[in-house]
Amino acid sequence: MARLEPDRASLGHLSDEIEACRACPRLVAWREQVAGSPRAAYAGEHYWGRPVAGFGDPAARLIVVGLAPAAHGGNRTGRVFTGDRSGDWLYGALFRAGYANQPTSTGRDDGLALTGAWVTAAVRCAPPANRPSPSERDNCLPWLVDELALLARARVIVCLGGFAWDCAMRVLEAPRPRAKFAHGAELEVADRWTLLGCYHVSQQNTFTGRLTEPMLDAVFARARELAAS
């Protein structure tokens, strides 16, 4: 992984840099368009409408990586996986695994706290149709590089979906041929990290039963085992 730049020498400074980023014109335009046109359910709310930094315990042993903030989730609330059904599934599972103090996530000031875990995303702005371009992905990956470097105690990365799996292997410079994503896949990388594959907590997966609560719980139970070793 690349070395940290001087102005990213702490998680707080890194969050400030992420939240000020305007590197991808298409993503900037989309996130701000969505923020200016709230859904009826959120009428009157002030949307965050900026990049979304990671969230959790700086002493985390476990890192959870998703794809990107949801247009009316993290892009609205300003916290990753917060304010939508995907977040309800994720934080519910983290609560059951002992990583979160509550099973719900509604906003930045809802009292949610993580112990031993950090939640982040490969791309920090909500992308149209949840599909960032390769160049947008590559613009964002240095943020993940620095985040992993600053989370010095972390050893396990749960990758929610194939996109996050691919991005984790890119930033960790995993040797080729790179292992394919699969739910429950497990891969040791760079003498420090273990990657765990997990289907994304999207409604497409949870509504159809492709991902169930027992499946999700099993991934985090395994993550806790690995993080403790």
Mind explaining what this structure looks like?
This protein has a single domain, classed as Uracil-DNA glycosylase-like domain (Uracil-DNA Glycosylase, subunit E). It is globular, with a radius of gyration of 16 Å. The longest helix has 17 residues, at 134-150. It has a 6-stranded mixed beta sheet with strand order 1-3-2-4-6-5, sandwiched between helices. It has helices at residues 11-19, 25-35, 74-77, 85-96, 134-150, 162-171, 203-206, 213-228, and strands at residues 55-56, 62-66, 117-121, 156-160, 186-189, 193-198. By secondary structure, the chain is an alpha/beta fold. Helix content is 36%, strand content 12%. A hairpin with a 3-residue loop joins strand 5 (186-189) and strand 6.
Q: Which blocks of ≥5 consecutive residues have pLDDT under 50?
A: none
SSE string, helices as H and strands as E: HHEEHHEHEHEEHH
Counting DSSP H or I runs of 4 or more residues, the number of helices is 8
Stated plainly, the CATH topology is called: Uracil-DNA Glycosylase, subunit E
Helix content: 25-40%
The CATH architecture can be given as: 3-Layer(aba) Sandwich
> How would the global form be characterised?
globular
State the end-to-end distance. Answer: 23 Å
Proportion of beta-strand residues: 5-15%
CATH H level, superfamily name = Uracil-DNA glycosylase-like domain
Alpha-carbon Rg, integer: 16 Å
Structural class by secondary-structure content: alpha/beta
Spatial strand sequence of the major β-sheet: 1-3-2-4-6-5
How many domain units?
1
Supply the CATH class.
Answer: Alpha Beta
Main sheet makeup = 6 strands, mixed
**What is the number of beta strands?**
6
The overall pLDDT average reads 94
